[in-house]
Amino acid sequence: MPIYEYVCKQCSKQFELLVHGSTTPECPSCKSKKLEKQLSVFAVSNNPGGSGGGDLPEACRSCSNPGGPGACGMR
Asked: How far apart are CA 32 and CA 62, in angstroms?
């Protein structure tokens, strides 16, 4: 069951809604069904202390090479 983002065309309220199957969504404020689905965005976190990222080198500050300062293309 996906979560969608909407803006109500009647009252301009922005909200997220978990949509079940063929359910027709409605605005939680005014109950209007005149909604505009928004483009959803997602975020990715680079948490060095967290799990899942492994030990990746820091990018070189001179040339932005992802291999780090030892792989610098400007030296």
From this structure: 54
DSSP secondary structure, 17-39, as one string = EE--TTPPP--TTT----EEEPP
Q: Are 37 and 6 in contact (CB under 8 A)?
A: yes
Residue 7 to residue 13: CA distance in whole angstroms: 6
> Is 37 within 8 Å of 5 (Cβ atoms)?
yes
Q: Which residue has the tokens 């983002």?
A: 5
Q: What is the pLDDT of residues 14-72, one digit of tens each?
A: 999 888 888 899 999 999 999 999 977 666 666 665 555 556 566 666 666 666 666 66
List the chain domain ranges: 1-41
Class of domain 1-41 as given by CATH: mainly beta
- pTM beyond 0.85: no
DSSP secondary structure letter of residue 40 = P
Tokens, residue 12: 């301009």
